[in-house]
Amino acid sequence: MTIKSTFTLTSAVVAAAILVAACGGGGGGGGGGGSSSPAAGTPASAPGSASAPSSASSPVTGTQPTPQYAANSATLAMFNQVNAYRQQCGFPAVQQNTVLDQAAQAHAMWEGLNNTVADNETAGQQGFTGVTYLDRAAHFGFPTTNAIGGGVSAAHWTAAALTETQYGQLLVNQWFTGVYHAPVVLTPVTKIGIGEYETSLSGFPAAWGSATLEDTSIQQLTTGAPLTFPCQGVTGLPPKAHTETPTPPNTSGPWGTPVIVMGNVTDTIVLTSGTMTDPSGNVINLQLLYSANDPNKELQPYEAVAYPTTPLAENTTYTVNVSGTQNGKPFTKPPFPFTTGTINW
User: Fold this and answer.
1) CB atoms within 10 A of CB 2
2) CA 308 to CA 179: how far, in whole Å?
3) For 260-288, how does the pLDDT look when each residue is reduced to its tens digit (9 = 90+)?
4) Strand partners, 321
5) Can you tell me the distance from the alpha carbon of 342 to that of 238, in angstroms, rounded to the nearest whole number?
6) Looking at residue 170, what DSSP letter applies?
């Protein structure tokens, strides 16, 4: 059965207790399950420049050695999907943090109560617990000294109810198709909080999701060339993204699966070439986006994105070639294949 849906997305990154990147408000997309879609979110605070936290850190409580989310819940599906993607490509696994869970759950509820997807909440609205992701984490007791991390939010509006696992996986896959969202979910920290809230919107089921990745220390990702997501062997990624705010450069509609290139937080990554090749040998030149050329000033110096400006084909293997510089030193990633899945929204 085909489920028509709409969704909106927002994301923000914070460093040293300052909002330093944002994926502006929300962007609607898809063929609606009804007559309207969730309202677009409000713009996040103006971006600044990223900085690594100092070596000092505050104690962090609430971190679980194994996930405690309810069996068959959307939140467990979201946690498992994020970790599966991160670990498959060499990014550190995240651990559930119950303090961040409270912040993420409160924000997901705020979204549903106000029919709005946004990074920033407004005081006085139903369910308000703090303006930014960091504010909400602090509200529930997460230490903010030298805090670094970020957050993402989304909504999925369907013509018929899905399983909790389907809702969770859909929300995560939406984040991983976002040019500005996927880097946030790959943030090199190891603590995560996840929230999901369900309502009825115009008579149709709606799922509202949020995740906060936060810590008082940063992880070193690599001692060599930067990591990528996807990487060799990743399968099932959606071949088509919907709208995103701000709009990724050189797109006039949906685009294809983005390739995230991530260095250590002290690195500067510049992309110089990027292609995808389909099974027939057709070469797709990718849009190259990094901090220095990002017109939206969202990407941090240590991250970059190479993406096709039009959708990819379903259930197709593409070979990626990407080159650039890391702190001025050239790198070329060995060519690697990944395989798309079906469009699941």
Assistant:
1) 10
2) 10
3) 999 999 999 999 999 999 999 999 999 99
4) 275
5) 6
6) H
CA distance 341 to 240: 10
Tokens describing residue 261? 């290139």
What is the value of pTM for the model shown?
Answer: 0.86
CA dihedral sign, ordered 309, 296, 39, 156: positive
Give ∠ CA 139-70-167 in degrees, rounded to 5: 85
DSSP state of 125: S
Q: What is the pLDDT of residues 191-222, one digit of tens each?
A: 999 999 999 988 899 999 999 999 998 999 99
Distance CA 142, CA 151 (A): 14
Alpha helix stretches (DSSP H) within the chain: 74-88, 98-114, 133-139, 164-176, 182-185
All residues at 6 or more sequence positions from 195 whose CB lies less than 8 Å from its CB, including other chains = 75, 101, 103, 104, 105, 106, 107, 108, 109, 209, 210, 211
Rounded to 5 degrees, φ, ψ at 203 are: 85, 5
Q: How far is CA 191 from the centre of its chain?
A: 15
Q: Name the residue type at position 83.
A: N
Q: Evaluate whether 199 touches 244 at the Cβ level (below 8 Å).
A: no
